[in-house]
Amino acid sequence: xxxxxxxxxxxxxxxxxxxxxxxxxxxxxxxxxxxxxxxxxxxxxxxxxxxxxxxxxxxxxxxxxxxxxxxxxxxxxxxxxxxxxxxxxxxxxxxxxxxxxxxxxxxxxxxxxxxxxxxxxxxxxxxxxxxxxxxxxxxxxxxxxxxxxxxxxxxxxxxxxxxxxxxxxxxxxxxxxxxxxxxxxxxxxxxxxxxxxxxxxxxxxxxxxxxxxxxxxxxxxxxxxxxxxxxxxxxxxxxxxxxxxxxxxxxxxxxxxxxxxxxxxxxxxxxxxxxxxxxxxxxxxxxxxxxxxxxxxxxxxxxxxxxxxxxxxxxxxxxxxxxxxxxxxxxxxxxxxxxxxxxxxxxxxxxxxxxxxxxxxxxxxxxxxxxxxxxxxxxxxxxxxxxxxxxxxxxxxxxxxxxxxxxxxxxxxxxxxxxxxxxxxxxxxxxxxxxxxxxxxxxxxxxxxxxxxxxxxxxxxxxxxxxxxxxxxxxxxxxxxxxxxxxxxxxxxxxxxxxxxxxxxxxxxxxxxxxxxxxxxxxxxxxxxxxxxxxxxxxxxxxxxxxxxxxxxxxxxxxxxxxxxxxxxxxxxxxxxxxxxxxxxxxxxxxxxxxxxxxxxxxxxxxxxxxxxxxxxxxxxxxxxxxxxxxxxxxxxxxxxxxxxxxxxxxxxxxxxxxxxxxxxxxxxxxxxxxxxxxxxxxxxxxxxxxxxxxxxxxxxxxxxxxxxxxxxxxxxx
Length: 718
Fold this sequence. Notes:
Shape: globular
Strand order of the largest sheet: 14-2-3-6-7-11-24
Largest sheet: 7 strands, mixed
Strand content: 15-25%
Number of strands: 30
Radius of gyration: 25 Å
Number of helices: 27
């Protein structure tokens, strides 16, 4: 293999049958995950040191006599494909150098109260959370709509979007001070009167750029779209609005609204109707915005709650910033992924196969590791710590699916690939819950499992099967019974026909589980690029086999363009074509037809892969269906309807639109075919191609990234 891809610091730690880290991968490890002292001197001398540091920190949770054993087992798992999420890799075992940081990637805020005091108190909590290195998600549709009268203030409110601006600026300020840009998710109910403003918010340059945005979509809304019915935009009514004969009042089930709302004996809330529109009209606004701006995302919130293992004690209304973890108030997003490329034997040959035994072993050890992270969470708020300790949820996922399918000569999106994807999810889930049972016996079940849950009318309405089993309102049932026997997800194990699966559920009902949730598929952007040597992100295909990635650098206002190669291309070269250096377009044209990339995958295939993954993922999935710039809008709309029909919990698409933004992943052809116009101080203009280099403010930038930084306000207003 050419020295171009040999790593100076980590080559000695790479297994003989693996591919050494490419320069871009080693660079990201060095910048983001390698522990350094306050002077910038490396504490981790190589990648193996990073593994040992993390393994040691997690092994310290074990009993003193077992710590050395688990240190070795955890180190083995890390070297064989287990990759904890970024905050764990960066901060576990780093207390002597950065004691105020967390090992948790993201959280969800407490419910934002509809009061000035409540809104500002949540800003403070969010600031402390972001300062600890955690992203955060919020629902903003608990705030009354723009123009609503505030009795206590004797004035009219400016609405949720104006308060979102405050959170946005706070996040920018906190993350700028800490050197790492913050991540936030803002969710918004599809029936809120200000939903149109929410959908269109990012059309203003520089607004809400510290947020990802997603609409909370309900089945009722989707059915109204399908049948071209009307849709009412509503918000909980106060007593004076109830008494006003001119107001239309409807009753809605809104369990997320707490406090002084008006309820009937069914638990429904009285809501004032602010406006009635055609559902299709609102749908078109969402789709047009998503087509042009890649937002808002699409969270099918009914499906999320219906499939939630903790259906009996949670009402989920928000997610972490990338959407793979729907969480209750103060919920925490504890993540890790397994690199599937590690388990392919004889890649690119007719004998290529997946090592299921080793995969299950890594899942087993990694499950224990992630559970140990709960004990060293480092979360800044008491309510966050209480929540994670009560339920101990984590989200194990996998990355490199696209790369792995290529190595096994299997077309991404084919029936064979769907069967393989579903099997990966099943084996991960069953192994995980087997370990969860063992850990419950060894260390104790998650506290929620042992709680006596009083059956309320709301709980009974969610699961009519309770009444069929003789359970009545007012009865008290152990959390582990409601979790194992009555959650829609866990019931899938009884439908496999495998006696071991049935026995597992029965044992979990009797003894409980160490955690309530085990799986989640994250986008894995930088850990895929760095620690997995640019294996494909999550369950995505590789974006391309040679492309540029835009990287955020501390102290640099525009993103930096980094040249990268797909893992499967490097592996193919090493095994099949070791003399093909440097990469050329001719080589790309000569690759076998199973070397697919994102632009050759149809939107339907993206959704099918997500559906195959979702079956055995008990949380959710962050996945993006990439579509070409010239993809027809009418076909684009159908992607979301198809996702709804397939029962997905959410859907996200990305269409390259250079007039609006630069994506994280960029193809050279897209940049070369896009012209950017800059206006100079003297009023003259300069036009340059997106891939050309420009010096500005003492730094070198690609024209595309500089244009983006100026437009978004990182150098002031454009």
